[in-house]
Specification:
heterodimer, A: about 230 residues, alpha/beta, Rossmann fold, 5-stranded parallel beta sheet, 9 helices, B: about 270 residues, two-stranded antiparallel sheet, 9 strands, globular
């Protein structure tokens, strides 16, 4: 098993992280459009997207079957399937892979739910280390407001209602997001995350992101992609 | 009472203390007769007045069905498979095994983490990685390893049972042989080696599974009896004998009941 930091592939892996409502998905889709228009072959990989695990996750959420440990392990299963199917093969082929949420989401969320920090990191040791990882940081109240206005109702696990922090959904969500944000802040140095200030205008954030991404792109990747077509 | 011990990092949010039940593991490769012995032990223990929960791989409410579906499609990647099994294990540990042990049940488990570790390592997983994941596992009161001498013996047993070779039990995903037989033998050889390696590490009680079912059953009972007798409630003692009237109206003759052991404990858990 090749572990974190030791994978060597010709492709590039860029990932975005951040609390709900930090604007990371918007930024990633803008980056995707740009890379495509520049002629690269780009693959997109989302959190919770494995067809093998999807039904189990859906059912477990609906019937509230999760404990913090099984929540963590089932998401790791989903991520393993994504890694084996959507991430490693395109990277081997020299493509660019963009991932909306990566292992750091699990580290933040599972530890906020009480899982052991070292244990969760060990579980995900098989993950490919990203070429660059962007952490879109938005203050807690901004993130909470964005989510509250975008969604009519919070989901049970999303709001951390399984943890009995508060009977009030919005209150519980705030507590949960606060813990998550705290974990992200710890990971900035641990994993060398690139922090992008999520309160800046969208275009400014995108400019910063493209500048960093372009440092890792070689003309070679592009030619290969063009020839492949 | 047994002290709760974990192999590594304990489950989050768990209260570590003692439990009145017993965790008994029956391990071994495919076809050694594990499930036969679990059934025999269950009958024996229940007739002696112990409440028994039996469990095994892919029997979790959470992930059992998902694993079975994925297996039948032969679409499981190696890492994905290891983690899916770990999810299944965690769910059973937290929702079946621990509650039953706390309630004083004897938990009989057909395989535990050792099969999962062996399968993962044989498939190229980092041995330390898979062991850390299963660090959440409770250290059992006893682990019986039903051992056969060779993979060829196993093949004979599997054929003798009339079920034939299964895709995953034959390790067909590993491409070790040209047909099911060759692959089965090569795969089970690797597994046997891993089990032998784990034997000391995890303190297996090795039982020669090439003996007759009856012999093996006797050895198992003899090894389990002292575990139960050390309990303050000595249900294994020959006297006093009472006839236990079950709620369903059926009468079980000569059920030994220890002092203070109520018939209410004889509840079965599905």
């Amino acid at each position: 098993m090749i572990s974190y930091g030791y994978h060597r592939y010709p492709g590039r892996l860029f990932i975005v992280e951040g609390t709900d409502g930090s604007g990371k998905s918007t930024q990633l889709s803008l980056l995707y459009q740009w890379l495509k228009s520049e002629g690269y072959s780009v693959f997109f990989s989302e959190w919770n997207s494995s067809p093998l695990v999807k039904d189990t996750t859906k059912r477990a959420k609906k019937r509230r079957l999760f404990t913090p440990t099984s929540f963590s392990l089932l998401h790791a299963t989903d991520f393993a399937d994504r890694t084996e199917r959507d991430i490693i093969p395109p990277l081997k082929a020299g493509a660019i892979v963009l991932a909306d949420r990566y292992i750091y989401t699990a580290f933040a969320r599972d530890v906020a739910r009480g899982c052991d920090r070292a244990w969760v990191r060990e579980v995900y040791k098989f993950a490919v280390k990203p070429t660059a990882a962007f952490f879109f940081r938005a203050p807690l109240d901004v993130a909470v407001d964005r989510i509250a206005s975008a969604r009519p109702q919070l989901k049970f696990y999303e709001a951390g209602m399984d943890m009995d922090w508060s009977q009030d959904e919005e209150e519980s969500f705030k507590i949960f997001q606060g813990k998550i944000l705290n974990e992200y802040d710890h990971m900035v140095n641990e994993f060398g995350l690139t922090v992008i200030d999520g309160t800046q205008p969208i275009r400014t954030q995108q400019r910063q992101m493209r500048e960093i991404v372009s440092r890792y792109l070689k003309e070679k990747l592009k030619e290969k992609a063009v020839l492949a077509k | 009472m047994s002290e709760m011990k974990f192999y590594g990092t304990a489950l989050p949010g768990i209260e570590i203390g003692t439990y009145p039940g017993k965790l008994i593991v029956i391990e071994g490769t495919d076809g050694v007769g594990r499930s036969t012995h679990v059934t025999l032990l269950r009958t024996w223990l229940e007739s002696t007045g112990y409440a028994v929960l039996d469990t095994g791989m892919t029997r979790s409410v959470l992930a059992g069905r998902g694993i079975k579906d994925a297996r039948s499609g032969h679409t499981l990647g190696r890492l994905t498979m290891q983690l899916y099994y770990a999810t299944d294990f965690a769910d059973r540990l937290e929702n079946q095994i621990l509650p039953a042990l706390r309630a004083g049940f004897i938990v009989l488990t057909d395989r535990y983490i050792y099969s999962a570790v062996a399968r993962a390592v044989v498939r190229g997983a980092d041995p330390n990685w898979i062991r850390s994941i299963y660090g959440i596992a409770l250290v059992p009161d006893v682990v019986f390893y039903l051992r056969v001498r060779s993979a060829e013996d196993l093949a004979g047993r599997v054929l003798g049972s009339g079920r034939g070779f299964d895709y995953w039990e034959s390790g067909m995903d590993l491409g070790l042989g040209n047909d099911y037989y060759d692959s089965f033998v090569a795969y089970q050889k690797l597994l046997l080696k891993e089990f032998d390696r784990m034997s000391g590490e995890y303190d297996f009680q090795v039982i020669d599974a090439s003996k007759s079912v009856k012999r093996v059953a006797i050895v198992l009972r003899r090894s389990i009896a002292p575990l139960l007798e050390s309990e303050p409630v000595t249900a294994m003692a020959p006297a006093p004998k009472e006839t236990l009237k079950l709620q369903s109206g059926t009468t079980e003759p000569n059920v030994s009941l220890g002092v203070g052991k109520s018939s209410g404990e004889k509840t079965k858990v599905a």
